[in-house]
Specification:
Blueprint: E1 3-7, H1 12-23, E2 27-32, E3 44-48, E4 66-69, H2 81-92, E5 98-102, H3 115-127, H4 129-143, E6 148-154, E7 156-158, E8 167-170, E9 179-181, H5 182-192, E10 203-206
Parallel strand pairs: 1-2, 1-4, 2-3, 4-5, 5-6, 6-10, 7-9
Antiparallel strand pairs: 8-10
Helix pairs in contact: 1-5, 2-4
């Protein structure tokens, strides 16, 4: 049983992470913007904070065994949600802490990907350029930190049932599938907390 904080807890993916973590018996701290975002549950604590505001998480993450960021931007316009939130999380965590963040497989296309995949990825990158730019900044912040970090890069997220057998690419060097169940992603994030192979490298995932 571990103490895990989830930032971006009230989003669709964040809620699945909370559910899966509680089902495993973990002690979970949900970082929320409004009190009462979750029904009371054994093992669950809420902390009200805006994780993109400097100093909002100071003194609130140091006792956690791991922090998972499920922060997400709304819309496709310019955003600093990922970079600002990650800056605050890093500042609030102790040196050597375990941090996993949800990024996107769209940030990088494997060299072995086919022509159709590369053309589609280029088009998607233009559409999502603001989101991807801030995600890239987020990943650079991780690399410059003294934490045990992992950006997990899912493909298009869905509410489909878990497959229980997701495709994983350590280092995000191999192509994975087109869709990722949020439940598969949540399960993998929890599994990866104690997997040293995932530290200091990106991981691509799909269902």
């Amino acid at each position: 049983m571990a103490a895990i904080a989830v930032v971006g807890a009230t989003g669709r993916t964040g809620r699945v992470i909370i559910d899966r973590a509680l089902a495993r018996g973990h002690r979970v701290t949900a970082i929320v913007r409004s009190a009462g975002s979750f029904a009371p549950a054994p093992g669950l604590t809420e902390i009200v904070a805006d994780p993109t505001a400097p100093g909002s998480l100071a003194g609130r993450l140091g006792e956690q065994d791991a922090v998972i960021s499920a922060l997400g931007a709304v819309g496709r316009g310019p955003t600093t949600v990922y970079s600002a939130g990650t800056t605050e999380i890093i500042s609030a965590m102790g040196s050597g802490g375990r941090l996993l963040v949800i990024s996107s497989a769209g940030l990088a296309v494997p060299a072995a990907a086919g022509t159709v995949t590369k053309v589609f990825a280029a088009a998607l990158h233009r559409i999502m350029r603001h989101t991807y730019a801030d995600m890239a900044t987020m990943e650079r912040l991780l690399a410059d930190s003294d934490l045990r970090w992992t950006p997990v890069r899912p493909t298009r997220l869905t509410d489909d049932p878990a497959t229980g057998n997701p495709r994983i690419s350590l280092g995000a060097t191999a192509q994975v599938g087109p869709r990722t169940s949020r439940t598969d992603l949540a399960t993998y994030l929890l599994d990866a907390i104690d997997d040293p192979r995932t530290e200091h490298t990106a991981v691509a995932i799909s269902s």
